[in-house]
Design a protein that fits this description.
The structure holds two protein chains of two kinds. Chain A is an alpha/beta fold. Helix content of chain A is 34%, strand content 13%. In chain A, strands 2-1-3-4-6-5-7-8 form an eight-stranded mixed β-sheet, sandwiched between helices. The longest helix of chain A has 21 residues, at 285-305. Chain B has four domains: 12-32 and 505-559, Alpha-Beta Plaits, CATH 3.30.70.20; 36-117 and 456-496, Fumarate Reductase Iron-sulfur Protein, Chain B, domain 2 (Orthogonal Bundle), CATH 1.10.1060; 128-222 and 378-439, 3-Layer(bba) Sandwich (FAD/NAD(P)-binding domain); 227-375, 3-Layer(bba) Sandwich (FAD/NAD(P)-binding domain). Chain B has 18 helices and 19 strands. Chain B has helices spanning 36-40, 47-55, 59-67, 73-79, 83-87, 99-113, 136-147, 164-167, 176-187, 205-211, 240-250, 266-277, 306-314, 384-387, 420-439, 489-496, 510-514, 545-549, and strands at 26-30, 128-132, 151-155, 192-194, 214-217, 223-224, 258-262, 282-286, 318-320, 323-331, 334-347, 353-357, 363-365, 369-372, 376-377, 407-409, 520-522, 533-535, 555-559. Classes of the chains: A alpha/beta, B alpha/beta. Chains A and B meet through helix 1, helix 2 and helix 10 of A and helix 17 and helix 18 of B.
Chain lengths: 331, 561
């Protein structure tokens, strides 16, 4: 076997990649951005025949610095509040033209949990044939890390600083999936960048169903969460393995699948890697209480969704990311 | 200057104009590092490389990769003490890979299918090199020299090649047919084999020098070391190795009711098992060192292969560990027993380790005969000049002998060599050194750094039990039937997928899948590093996510130049 220097340049190789990627390099996301990775994985699963409506937020800002665009698919920036409404309109227009092009809406947790929630609710209620993907990095990262209703309990942001009165965010993370489930839409799921095969599988499922589908993707933010750039996937994986971010699928509001956790990690494994939870490791009775509180929130998730694995499974928290020689994956 | 499009839309993928690579403070590089199994192998095999070929489903390519280092895999796959498995990173995760069993399977497949050794025909002006001794060291040196393009004359004192493989390893460990097939195939790669030609009797080193450009000495250590207890030797005492050799060549064994063998090496254990199989009810081994087991320090373990010791105990051989022989009890001219004493190697002043006997711990063992198996030494015939009065030769790690240009040595003739695999490694390194000497070129560069478990990301692997290798039940064992059973090729293939691929790309696509910046590109052609991925440094921001998520430790972060 002779070794040869590749004869193709990087730009030639880039045009000859085996998979279509709707999000191109040269975007301005921070080093190790989980959302950039999540968005690209989602576009990989969608393919080229799509229209995307994108709410205001990091993703919109870092992909489209004027006059350039990192998108390889038709993409439209809506305002913060109305992404779901814009996507609804796109879908209606395509329907009127009898075209089968898919419509996907992207939003961050700010644009989904908070600002865009009523438009989203409307879209789900009218059951538009749209896949709504929420990239959940658990705060308003684009404007400098302010708390959102998705920020987990006890996390530090610039508007939920730990101090004399509080140990980080006072309130709980909004249980958005239950709100979505109440709309009885055909498909809803949670996913994460740590399990790319699982994520792509859920995106394909969401596109397949007739009617509205919703996926929320846990996307680590090195800047806002205060973890090392290299540890984004590690952190996201631990969020699943501790039970803090359950991987579930719902059809018509009913739980139809959950990724079992083979080895349940203590929540401190997850929290310790992130500066936003640093204050919980101080020698302070309130910090200890909050750690216990977060552990109980994880235990609650494990209980209500039945996450503890009965026996090893190839799609559980240890098996779902197994790699094989030659890049064979489950999805 | 960018111009605004009609309708103020941006063209697709135009962000590529913006090179984010200049944000980078560190850059990822693909770097093949060494798997611990490779570093641990005395013969110089790279198990990671041949397991990869086997996992790809190409057992012939796997065998060719294997014999690029060790031409005798069917043999070492049976007799080696497999330090590769002891060092396997998987051992700290669940169980080490069954590398030893896979090596044997590949060796047997090659014999079964008659795969050709990867050796090119010699050119007519090939330089001549002499190899003295056709044991593992000599065979290995001769094979590698032939591969490197030299015309090799291989001299052997006995009528057949194999050295101690043929004369001292019983068939239950190494069936004669395997030994014969493997060596016959090896001898036919293009070397000239001259049996019944003994150094010191039929020729001298000066004779060889006259028509060979270099000489490799691999004559082994043929003479049983002198043994006595305070000058007392039993009347009919013979070295254990001689008894073993006699049994292997003519099949006769001494008959006693009870025997004590002194020594803890493979000869002692082999002889004990052969005697036990022959029906001697009581066979004892007396060793200064300990029976191998968890928690026993490496320098304190008996030198025999751990699994052989384990099997000997299963078969009823009694091992007295940490014992020395204080006194022989002789009645008339016959041995009536030995007085044993507890001993231990202790570090005394200035770090010297000495064997200490503990007073008051003497016990008597009633046996009919005591057989020493305390090691051998080099037969000096023909080597007087090189030995200069020492019992062994002392070549450097490349087999070079100081003061004797063009003469190289390895295997048991060297002090400190202990195993067949050591000898094969010696032969290979000496062949490389001879090549460098004759071509006046540099020796191969030093080793790559080693990958340990914490350099891997084991989240991407699943626990999977090691494939079991069957043993003959104790009741069915005898001196002829092979005790360890073969790992079928299909099982070997499944086992090979357990390999962590330490330090080498396994094309799992993780870096390509997980790069947030699309800065990893796939290529059909193989790159210079031997993989199928390229970093696009125009866009890589240096986040190191790929390096952290690489399952096999193949990506390293370097400071930006």
């Amino acid at each position: 076997m002779t070794l040869e220097q590749p004869t193709k340049s990087c730009s030639e190789l880039r045009r000859a990649q085996p998979v279509f990627r709707g999000l191109e390099a040269g975007h301005r996301a921070c080093q190790g951005c989980g959302q950039a990775l999540a968005a690209r994985l989602v576009t990989e699963a969608i393919g080229p025949d799509v229209l995307i409506a994108n709410a205001t937020g990091c993703l919109e800002v870092f992909t489209t610095a004027w006059p350039q665009s990192a998108w390889r698919v038709p993409w439209l920036h809506s305002v913060f509040a109305n992404t779901a409404a814009v996507a609804s309109g796109m879908e209606a227009a395509l329907k009127a033209q009898k075209r089968n092009t898919k419509v996907v809406a992207f939003g961050g947790d700010g644009g989904t949990f908070d600002i865009g929630l009523q438009a989203l609710s409307g879209m789900l209620e009218r059951n538009h044939n749209v896949l709504y993907v929420c990239f959940d990095n658990e705060a308003y990262m684009n404007t400098g890390v302010q708390r959102s209703s998705s920020t987990p309990h006890a996390a530090e942001t610039t508007t939920s600083p730990p101090g004399r009165e509080r140990a980080g965010k006072r309130h709980l993370k909004k249980d958005l999936v239950t709100i979505i489930a109440a709309h009885r839409i055909p498909y809803a799921a949670t996913a994460t960048v740590a399990y790319p095969s699982d994520l792509r599988k859920k995106v394909r499922r969401g596109l397949q169903v007739e009617g509205a589908a919703f996926i929320v993707v846990h996307s680590p933010c090195p800047l806002g969460w205060g973890h090392e750039n290299a540890l984004g996937i590690e952190v996201a994986r631990l969020a699943v393995q501790t039970g803090l971010y359950p991987m579930i699928e719902l059809e018509r509001g009913e739980l139809v699948g959950a990724m079992p956790i083979r080895e349940v990690h203590p929540v401190t494994d997850y929290l310790r890697l992130q500066d936003r939870f640093k204050h919980l490791f101080a020698d302070d009775p309130r910090a200890r209480e909050e750690l216990e509180h977060l552990q109980e929130l994880a235990n609650h998730n494990i209980e209500v969704y039945g996450l503890r694995a009965q026996k090893p499974d190839r799609f559980d928290s240890e098996g779902a990311d197994t790699v094989r020689r030659g890049g064979m994956r489950t999805a | 200057m960018a111009t605004l499009t009609r309708g103020a839309f941006a063209k697709p993928g135009t962000s590529l104009q913006f090179k984010t690579g200049d944000w980078r403070l560190q850059r990822p590089v693909y770097l093949h590092r060494n798997a611990p199994c490779h570093v641990a192998c005395p013969a110089g095999e790279d198990p990671q490389a041949y397991l990869a070929r086997l996992a790809e489903g190409n057992s012939q390519a796997a065998w060719e990769t294997l014999v690029a280092a060790n031409p005798l895999p069917a043999i070492t796959g049976r007799v080696c003490h497999h330090p590769c498995e002891s060092s396997c990173n998987r051992g700290d995760y669940d169980e080490p890979l069954a590398i030893h069993g896979i090596e044997r399977t590949l060796g047997d497949e090659a014999i079964l299918h008659g795969w050709n050794y990867p050796v090119r025909p010699l050119s007519s002006d090939a330089l001549r090199v002499a190899v003295v001794g056709a044991g593992p060291a000599g065979l290995s040196a001769a094979y590698h020299l032939t591969r490197l393009g030299y015309r090799v004359s291989l001299f052997e004192a006995e009528s057949e090649a194999g050295g101690l493989l043929a004369s001292a390893i019983p068939a239950y460990r190494l069936p004669r047919s395997v030994l014969g097939d493997e060596i016959a195939r090896l001898l036919s790669v293009g070397m000239t084999f001259m049996p019944r030609t003994r150094l010191g009797r039929d020729f001298t080193l000066d004779d060889l020098r006259a028509d060979h450009r270099a000489i490799f000495i691999g004559v082994g250590n043929q003479r049983g070391r002198q043994w006595s207890v305070d000058g007392v030797v039993p009347r009919d005492s013979r070295p254990g190795l001689d008894i073993l050799k006699e049994w292997l060549s003519i099949g006769s064994l001494p008959a006693y009711k009870s025997v004590a063998i002194v020594g803890g090496g493979n000869t002692a254990v082999d002889l004990a098992r052969v005697l036990k199989f022959s029906g001697i009810p009581e066979v004892h081994i007396i060793s200064y060192r300990a029976v191998p087991g968890p928690g026993v320090a490496a320098e304190d373990v008996m030198r025999a292969t751990a699994r052989e010791v384990r099997q000997a105990i299963e078969e009823g051989v009694i091992i007295h560990e940490h014992r020395g022989v204080r006194r022989l009890i002789i009645r008339g001219e016959r041995v009536a027993g030995v007085e044993m004493v507890h001993t231990k190697k202790l570090t005394r002043s200035a770090g010297r380790r000495e064997t200490v006997e503990f007073e008051g711990t003497e016990t008597i063992l009633h046996v009919e005969q005591v057989i020493p198996a305390v090691g051998q030494e080099v037969d000096p015939a023909g080597l007087e000049m090189l030995l200069a009065g020492h019992p062994f030769l002392h070549p450097d790690s490349w087999g070079r002998l100081e003061g004797f240009e063009g003469i190289f040595a390895g295997g048991d003739v060297r002090e400190g060599a202990a195993t067949v695999s050591d000898a094969i490694g010696d032969g290979r390194r000496a062949a490389l050194a001879i090549d460098s000497y004759l071509r006046n070129s540099a020796l191969p560069a030093s080793q790559r750094p080693v990958v340990r478990l914490n350099d891997l990301n084991v989240n991407y692997f699943e626990p999977q039990p090691r494939t079991k290798i069957e043993l003959l039940p104790v009741g069915e064992r005898n001196a002829e039937r092979e005790i360890e059973q073969a790992l079928p090729l299909s099982h070997a293939g499944i086992e090979s997928h357990r390999c962590f691929s330490c330090g080498e790309c396994m094309s799992c696509d993780n870096c390509w899948t997980l790069c947030p910046d699309n800065a990893v590109l796939k290529t059909l052609e193989e790159t210079a590093a031997g993989d199928h991925y390229v970093f696009d440094y125009d866009y890589c921001k240096g986040c190191a996510l790929c390096a952290h998520e690489c399952p096999s430790g193949y990506i390293l972060m370097e400071p930006e130049p």
